Amino acid sequence: MARRPRIDLAGYHHLINRGVAQLNVYKCKADKDKFLEILCKACREYKANVHDYCLMDNHYHLLIETKQDNLSLLMRQINSNYACYFNRKYKRVGHLWQGRYKSWYIVQDEYLYMLLRYIEFNPIKAKMTSTVGEYEYSLAHAIINNKLVPCAKHSMLIKEFASETMVEFLALQLSANELARLNKEQKRAITIEDEKLSISMSKTLDEHFYECELKEARNDAMLDAYTDGHTQSAIAKYLGVSAGLVSMIVKARNED
Predict the structure, then answer these.
(1) Residues 17 and 111 in one domain
(2) Continuous H helices in the chain
(3) Which of 19, 59, 66, 203 is least enclosed, having the fewest CB within 10 Å?
(4) Beta-bridge partner residues of 26
(5) Angle between helices 243-255 and 215-227 (to 10 degrees)
(6) CA distance 223 to 8
(7) Is 33 within a domain?
């Protein structure tokens, strides 16, 4: 199977890597602290910001914003430096990570905000805690307990939310429709053509709204078109309605 092409462009990236053969890559708190130290050093050198993170026992989730087209260099330093530390400490040899890291380039704000909730829900999904912000090695916990690491000081969770509001936002469990949207976004083909991003969509707006004369059918098609990657403003313009109406309908359908 062909590998999904990397997008190294400056911007927002969701990144995951797991231990080889389901190995726990963090065996104690000191390991997770060391990973955060390595993460911050690499972000400082490559001028990147961490907007969210969650370090589980056998994998990590990172939401990183790069300012330059250097994601591969950044991730190589993080993964290789931590692997050297781990192998030296535990007297082991061989690969630590199961393979190259997985990365998804984020092109829509709605996808970005869903990811924040998705990342912070990982410890709850794994039954390691029951409340957002309780798990020690998540950014929400660091913010709440004033234990912020330097590379996350410009996180949107800090800049855009008060502490209490942040917890309320992150505690909103993703709906089935939102989870389907995340899954679809992760599978979406993104290519670079003439130094411009090209994002694949399964249908045109004409195809999404073909024979949608009834209001309910039109509203369902709005969510389908939005999930497919069409922007709310583009949908509004196509239908001749306000962007606010599209936003309201999409939000209501996502919550169903």
Answers:
(1) yes
(2) 29-46, 71-89, 109-120, 122-125, 139-144, 156-159, 163-170, 176-187, 205-208, 215-227, 232-239, 243-255
(3) 203
(4) none
(5) 90
(6) 30
(7) yes
> Could you tell me whether strands 190-193 and 196-199 are parallel, antiparallel, or unpaired per DSSP bridges?
antiparallel
| Token reading at 189 | 């083909």
- Is 175 a member of any domain? no
Residue 20 in any domain: the answer is: yes
pLDDT tens for each residue of the chain, 256 residues long: 334 456 788 999 999 999 999 899 999 999 999 999 999 999 999 999 999 999 999 999 999 999 999 999 999 999 999 999 999 999 999 999 998 899 999 887 888 999 999 999 999 999 999 999 999 999 999 999 999 999 999 999 999 998 889 999 999 999 888 888 888 777 776 666 655 655 666 678 887 887 787 888 888 888 888 877 787 888 888 888 888 888 888 878 776 6
Spatial contact of 79 and 17, defined as CB atoms under 8 Å apart:
yes
Residue 93: give its domain's CATH number. 3.30.70.1290
| Residues 147, 231 share a domain | no
101 is a domain residue: yes
- Indicate whether 166 and 205 sit together in one domain: no
Contact 55, 10 (CB under 8 A): no
